[in-house]
Design brief:
The complex is a heterodimer of chains A (373) and B (244). Helices cover 72% and strands 9% of the residues of chain A. Chain A contains twelve helices and four strands, in the order ββαβαβαααααααααα. A four-stranded mixed beta sheet of chain A has the order 1-2-3-4. Chain B is of the alpha/beta class and 244 residues long. Chain B has a single domain, classed as 3-Layer(aba) Sandwich (Rossmann fold), CATH 3.40.50.300. Helices cover 35% and strands 26% of the residues of chain B. In chain B, the strands form two sheets. In chain B, strands 6-7-8-3-9-10 form a six-stranded mixed beta sheet. In chain B, strand 1 and strand 2 form a beta hairpin. The two termini of chain B are 30 Å apart. Classes of the chains: A alpha/beta (373), B alpha/beta (244). The interface between A and B is medium-sized, with 13 and 22 residues.
Chain lengths: 373, 244
């Protein structure tokens, strides 16, 4: 059964538009096309016949309203035929509402230059806001250091437990596996040359100087950096940060500095753990694959690996920690009042802190090599 | 009564949207003062400017005689201890229990003994009408009405003279909302508070407010008591206060 129909009759300069049946939002799309392609050339009068319409919803009333507008815009006399009270009511309602409503202002589409300009300016503002964050951080740090009662040991201890002690397991496991893998790959190559014992030199330098610090920093960036952003971001959404400020509790003192200090303390310790575990992984492979006993391994290690390599790895710790913590917290403070921005900023915080760690490592690498260390 | 808050010629612009274009108002000691207006008119923004969460862009706000736009850090800290703020959703610290939340300002700012702090917390809890055995719960474990009461108790912890409330009855059922209104009136009389609040709740407005300022179209269209509010020519006032 056809629920509705729309017929167009063209006689001389008269147009007659006949609607029939139930007009609803589901079946008017065809009519809309017919209307938009309607030729109004040479037409003087038009009749809109709604007598056979049994039901009409607001969408189809808008269609009729627009049709009337279009016809009268072309100086055509309109005759509306309709006796159904309900249909008239809804037509009246729509036309009243439409006449009084303000037109939605559609935003102009921006040209590419405007878009580039806007993005550049926003990035510039982002840079400025990071600088002001750093400025406030250093200013607060200064006060922190000059006054002992300002230091919040309880929070620092809590954060050390959260981001340090609880990370021992994952750091130990990751670095053990990294040691294993690196040793296994190099053992294969070294066997070709019969240079088995040099695995000690290779592992010692690469793990102590580079692998352990960077792997530890990346794991911590994923673990603690994201946690900082999400925690502080959620506190911002629930207005806890505002509440702190109005009570005169500086969030920098309560939330920011304890986290940074805790991470600066823990990261070098975690790197030390990673050193040990990665070397144990290397020793296992050296024994199984190359037949180097642990005694021989450690003897050779003692002989060829200078202690400076160890310290170079450890000294990177606090720098990486500072980068991870500040970026994580900065991103947390950037969270706006919607839940989506927590996800956005957490992603950004992890990506940016890993990137920053790698850049920082590269700078160290160049600096130490040029200094001959 | 003397003015405790003086707002002069405040202008606020976000991006390219003008929120306030020259607001002036005075709040007297002992008043329960309402900031009203259609949604999006910048009531909460003005409140945030008063409590120094939002920077004042142009104009001046004086609270207890201190100019906020160029206030020194120490002075600002001192001022913050003289007022309490109740946020819309309470903003209790989620990592602390209700008791710890209320005790926090006392622990941080005073050298009182733990026993004394517990006494004070018990007193504040009983004023706002919370049950004594609820205070060991965490904010996530209590209802919306209890959260508001707990947050009110926290904002009263330091015995402020001035209280800022951001939509205190929003999200409460009508019975709890009326109860909250009575609580506010009781507190004002008991503790001699001055209260500034943003509200949309008509019943609460009639029950509690002494004086109101109505922000519409970026300006204050009316400031004064509720009796002769109908004489004002403003679309918002005519529709908002039409029913009663």
């Amino acid at each position: 059964m056809l629920e509705s129909s729309f017929d167009i009759l063209h006689v001389d300069d008269k147009l007659s538009l006949v609607f029939k049946g139930k007009l609803t939002i589901y079946n008017i799309s065809n009519f809309e096309q017919n209307i938009s392609t309607l030729s109004l050339y040479n037409i003087k009068t038009a009749t809109i016949d709604l007598n056979a319409v049994t039901f009409m919803d607001s969408a189809s009333s808008i269609l009729i309203y627009n049709l009337q507008k279009k016809l009268s815009h072309n100086n055509i006399d309109i005759k509306l035929l309709c006796e159904n009270k309900e249909v008239l009511d809804i037509l009246l309602l729509v036309s009243k509402q439409k006449d009084s409503a303000e037109k939605l202002i559609h935003k102009d589409r921006k040209t590419i230059i405007q878009t580039i300009g806007k993005h550049t300016y926003q990035n510039y503002l982002g840079f400025l806001s990071f600088m002001s964050f750093m400025g406030e951080l250093f200013f607060n740090k200064l006060r922190y250091i000059t006054s002992i009662k300002y230091i919040r040991l309880k929070e620092i201890a809590f954060e050390i437990n959260e981001s340090g002690v609880k990370a021992f397991g994952i750091i130990a496991l990751t670095s053990f596996l990294i040691g294993l893998v690196v040793a296994y790959q190099s053992a294969f190559q070294l066997k070709i040359y019969g240079a088995n014992i040099f695995i000690v030199d290779m592992l010692g330098i690469s793990i102590l100087r580079e692998l352990a610090p960077v792997i530890t920093a990346i794991v911590i960036a994923g673990r603690s950096g994201s946690a900082f952003t999400a925690q502080i971001g959620a506190m911002k959404i629930t207005e806890e940060l505002d509440a702190m400020r109005t009570m005169g509790f500086d969030p920098y003192r309560f939330l920011v500095l304890p986290r940074i200090i805790a991470l600066i303390i823990t990261l070098p310790i975690l790197i030390f753990v990673a050193d040990i575990m990665a070397l144990i992984g290397g020793m296992v492979v050296a024994y199984l694959d190359l037949g180097i006993t642990s005694d021989l391994f450690l003897e050779r290690f003692n002989e060829v690996i200078a202690v400076k390599h160890f310290f170079i790895g450890i000294i990177k710790g606090p720098f990486f920690a500072f980068l991870i913590a500040t970026i994580g917290i900065y991103r947390g403070l950037k969270v706006k009042d919607d839940t989506q921005s927590i996800g956005f900023n957490t992603t950004k915080s992890v990506v940016e802190s890993i990137f920053a760690v790698i850049i920082c490592d590269a700078v160290f690498s160049i600096a130490f090599t040029n200094l001959g260390i | 009564m003397k003015n405790i808050i003086e707002v002069k010629n405040i202008k606020t612009i976000f991006d390219d949207r003008v929120v306030h274009n020259g607001l002036n108002l005075n709040i007297k000691e002992g008043d329960i003062y309402g900031l009203l207006g259609p949604s999006g008119c910048g009531k909460t923004t003005l409140l945030r400017e008063m409590v120094m969460l939002e920077k004042i862009q142009s104009g001046s706000i004086k609270i207890f005689g201190n100019e906020l736009s160029n206030i020194k850090h120490e002075k600002a800290q001192e001022l913050r201890r003289k007022w309490g703020v109740l946020f819309q959703a309470g903003a209790l610290f989620s990592s602390l229990s209700i008791k710890e939340n209320i005790a926090l300002p006392l622990v941080e700012y005073t050298n009182l003994s733990q026993d004394m702090i517990n006494e004070i917390v018990e007193f504040k809890v009983s004023i706002v009408g919370l049950k004594a055995n609820d205070i060991n719960l965490y904010p996530s474990q209590i209802s919306g009405g209890m959260k508001k009461k707990a947050a009110l108790a926290r904002s009263l912890a330091m015995d402020p003279k001035l209280l800022f409330l951001d939509e205190p009855t929003s999200g409460l059922d009508p019975i709890s909302a009326r109860e909250f209104d009575r609580l506010i009136l009781k507190l004002r009389d008991m503790l001699g508070l001055s209260i500034v609040m943003v509200s949309h709740d008509l019943q609460s407005i009639y029950d509690t407010l002494d004086r109101v300022a109505i922000i519409d179209n970026k300006k204050i269209v009316y400031e004064g008591n509720l009796e002769n509010i109908h004489s004002v020519d403003s679309k918002f006032i005519q529709t908002f206060f039409a029913k009663i």
